[in-house]
Task: structure prediction
Amino acid sequence: MIFREATRQDLPAVLALLADEDSVVDPARVVIGEAHERAFAAIEADPRNEMLALTDGAGGAGGAGEVVLGCLQLTYIPGLGQNGQERALVEAVRIRADRRGAGLGAELMRLAAERARERGCGLIQLTSNKRRTAAHRFYERLGFARSHEGFKLHLEP
Amino acid sequence: MIFREATRQDLPAVLALLADEDSVVDPARVVIGEAHERAFAAIEADPRNEMLALTDGAGGAGGAGEVVLGCLQLTYIPGLGQNGQERALVEAVRIRADRRGAGLGAELMRLAAERARERGCGLIQLTSNKRRTAAHRFYERLGFARSHEGFKLHLEP
Result:
């Protein structure tokens, strides 16, 4: 398997993962909107944001036969606490529906935490919807402390 | 009152707020370490990070007599969801110990949400330690939904 930054070429596969709830979405059928293009370009250009892909490595990184098995986004946040170390925020964690239950999610999170640690982050954090109780057990098994309440407020344009 | 980006000149006052748990810390007694300098410079230089100060406005913005009453950090996170809109993450929310209970926290959060909305963010989010039950009621009164569990994992260097 390969863990690497997603490129523009991976965008259909990443959007397919994000659209996928219970069954695999065919990347070839994903409609890439202008908003997606802009957002992906913003992530790629930002030194404190990365869209990361876990792939089966078939044909090497970026090879024609390579299948994206999972993804997540890391944001590295500078801050005055924690002795000036960045903290890493995880968003958009997904594993392909037909590859779940085989430890890929744990591997993806382990690689993300290791990447954040190597960069010098003192903390990695995420929020998970209260309804997703299986995900909560998953994160706790990985050593995350469920220490905080997560609050969200939608903003109207 | 004035709501504005904190400058290097405000760093002692901001660090005093962050150090303050139950009583006011005198900014003149704050020791500014090299890590603080680096972290503050990183926030200032990053177009997706802002340390914001709410001040009493005495003598105008940055004036000699101006007192910093509260602070928070906003991070604007690009993402593929939400129609490509950024989301705003709030960290390091503080109100001066001797000015609490007068609605300043609500005003600070209202201004932060308005700033994020004007920038085009679709969502503003934060986590709060599960022990801080009064803070949870505060965020719910402001319209935030306590919809998520917040997970943290400390990373060893």
